[in-house]
Amino acid sequence: MGKGFSFLTATIIVFTLIFTTSNLYSTSLDTTQEKDLGFGLKLELTDENNNTFTENYINQMIKIKNFILLKNKKISPAEAEKITSYLMKYSYKYDIEPELTASIIYKESRFNVKAISPNGAKGLGQLMPHTCKSMGLNDCFEVEGNIKGTVRYIKYLLDLWKNYEKQIEFALASYLLGPNKVKCYNNIIYKPKAKKFIDEVLAITQLIKQLPLSEFD
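User: That's the sequence. What structure does it adopt?
Assistant: Structure tokens below.
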């Protein structure tokens, strides 16, 4: 491959990524920094607070925003961007796959920030009042707080089952049914209700990863 060709390819890819991302986060990504634009074709964007976003991070943002808009037609692009930005922020902070977080929130509330269950679970992640309190939340419906609490709770559950072969399955069953019930019945992950939830969350997680980067009409 000649140098001229690789430079042209890199330029096109960078332009495409910057154009796509500027449409997605036009209010938060003001400046760009291009690094390592050789055979690796690495790209980084820096916002007004000097937070750096890698190409993979940007792609995840776009796919999750697309998924939100695809699954909840009542959400505006601006609302989808807000949910996506907080979801990405706290998923990365607590070392959780953003796609997994998005999948759980979709299953719990369909991205309805005002969702409330018959049992009293509230907000995007359908957190119970006592869980909100334990996560330090004053308002279960507040978007950033609910997402932060949801991700922290997922992290707590994953840590709880970290020594188990089926860690993620036990964590998801615990999210659905409560960790105490799962502790009492270790085979609960194979019961129909828990298994359906686990299988669907994991399938949606993979679906989000495979979504195209182009926006949906």
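The domain at 59-209 is CATH 1.10.530.10 (Lysozyme).
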